[in-house]
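User: Hand in any protein.

Assistant:
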Amino acid sequence: MKQDLLIYNTLTRQKELFKPVHEGHVGMYVCGPTVYGDGHLGHARPAITFDIVFRYLQHLGYKVRYVRNITDVGHLEHDADDGEDKIAKKARLEQLEPMEVAQYYTNRYHKAMDALGVLRPSIEPHASGHIIEQIELVKQIMEKGYAYESNGSVYFDVNKFQAETKQYGRLSGRVLDEMLSTTRELDGQEEKHNTADFALWKKAAPEHIMRWPSPWSDGFPGWHTECTAMGTKYLGEYFDIHGGGMDLIFPHHESEIAQKTAVCGHGPCKYWMHNNMITINGQKMGKSLGNFITLDEFFTGSHKLLTQAYTPMTIRFFILQAHYRGTVDFSNEALIAAEKGFARLLQAYHLFKNLPASKASSIDISSYRQKCYDALNDDFNTPILISHLFDLAKIVNQVNDHHASLTQDDIKELKDLFDTFLFEILGMRDETTSDNSALIDGLMQMILDIRATAKANKDWTTSDKIRDSLGALGVVVKDGKDGATYELK
């Protein structure tokens, strides 16, 4: 069965036939999390989006090298070239080592992604582990004449690059003259030639705790530098797919293209893919806006905006019910509908073991496999694929109620469609037969809340009894500044 996969390329603003740079192999780089806080629904969307891309490309027989980075240095507050590194700020406030903060939230991110059924990438490089490569990249850009040193920092010369290549703004559609007229002056940016210039290397202030030696100063790399350096290291000079959220198109991905073009004469990849945002009341969900709900809060139902707890598979199904390039607006009603919809598919799947077979089929199911492939081949259209799965679930229910008939071979084909598209490619998991981790988390949070109330009331007897009783059951309670957490021995 020939599969012609179409991918919407943000760079060309059209769907294009997917043809890998190297036949049979795919290189894919996706911008991962900045690990200074717990993952929220906005983090789940790119992870799930590119998990589908990863799964489907592997299903089609490609050998995929999927690189998703961890940003643990160089990402400043407000995404500007001035201010405090987000992880360093968190470390200073909590009196921890920066890498302690990064490791803690990396572990938390992995735990949440595992719960959501997101496959681990082939390589997960950390920005802090590739400082040498980033320094080398900055040197190469300077040698090409597109960067300059100023007071120990190094900046990319956007004006010169644009004058000689006419490439800046191609991905985002922004015009440099407009950017220069609308970009506000930021404190500490007088060392730049132009406000649009971005940092490749920043000299560290005396109080800055994350710093490395370089030819220009003791400092740290710019946010954009890391992805260009790590993408090149693990995927080569030119690879297939670069992905991330739409909020990264400018300035992050635009700046990546500029850096790579300055060195190599072309951008880093063939196809740019971007997922749209998760919104709450039409506003982007994000840490900087303070309107986010963490994934743990979804799993336990502990956020004030939630009417109940939602399982990881409900969250995954909720996200997959919208096309990755469309917005998804959070509401309890939409999540409850996703929960019920996925339950309908599982109920139909559970009927297969006792589904009655007939000598002849009253329904032709021969076209459904191609329909499912057609949906995925049309830029990974998961909502259309899910609609086909609902049609198949309806057929299963009709056969079970003796309102339709299928042969044993057709029943086998129907079950294989569920196994292939619902579980293998969409990555859904039957939580009714899996562990009860979400339930355990919810119950434990309730117990810890009761203990916190006891401590607040200075009821040390009850507080200690809860801790000791949990300890006897193999549950270790750890008290911290932000409250108690638990782990199993």
The radius of gyration is 25 Å. The CA atoms of residues 52 and 145 lie 40 Å apart. Residues 437-488 form one domain. Residues 181-187 have pLDDT under 50 and may be disordered.
